[in-house]
Design goal:
Length: 267
Amino acid sequence: MKNNSKKSFRKIVYIVLIIIAVLSVVYIIKYFYDYYTSKNQSNLLNEVTISEQTNFLIENNLQESTTEPIKSERILKLEELKKQNDDIIGWVEIENTDINYPVLQSEDNDFYMNHNYKGEFSTAGAIFLDKDYNWSIPSSNLLIYGHNMKNSTMFQNLLNYNSIDYYYEHPIIRFTTLQEDAQYEIIGAFYSKVYFKTDTNVFKYYKFINAKNEDEYNSYIQNVKKASLYDTGISAQYGEQLITLSTCSYHTADGRFVVVGRKKVVE
């Protein structure tokens, strides 16, 4: 009986070890797949090519016989990229970080949680703009979401803004659309969470997309400044375009980390 018990126990241990080994292999494969697909998105804009004629016009600050302003190479590449997926509405980049991705927008905020810029299933998802942003106005705040991936891709680098030194090294968010190539100066960075609907007297930053009036806009800015981990010395006035980047944080249940910027005025 004892020998049979030992054999049964060894068999169970053996099966458990096999299961652990298989799960480990699956995890490793998933890790590298997510890393590869995320990195592939970040290098995408550099891989897009434009015609030699168009490139010549850009380099020599010329334009074809049209009254339209000269488009930057970045905008022209974005136009080419949009042909792959009409949901692509822009490109977000923070220089010298891993944040360098196409931004998409769909009819809901769920699809690009687990689909990449091609619409293919991916646990890393894509960087996407809130569905309620209205381009015809345009809305006051570009609310953009991205996953916090363990392999440092997507919006994971946002959490580095918990340090003021990191902010000093990366004070600008660059956001390119088909209309313009703009820069945003960072106003603040803070920890937050997704609150219950019944929670009151809390800062639900994710509810602010278009200001109904000046008071609502100013209230948002005041809350950002109050919640920020440090003072950047930058604020915003009613009417100035804002950008808010949001990712998951594990400091609390349903935690979030948020970075907010205002559009830089071109002099």
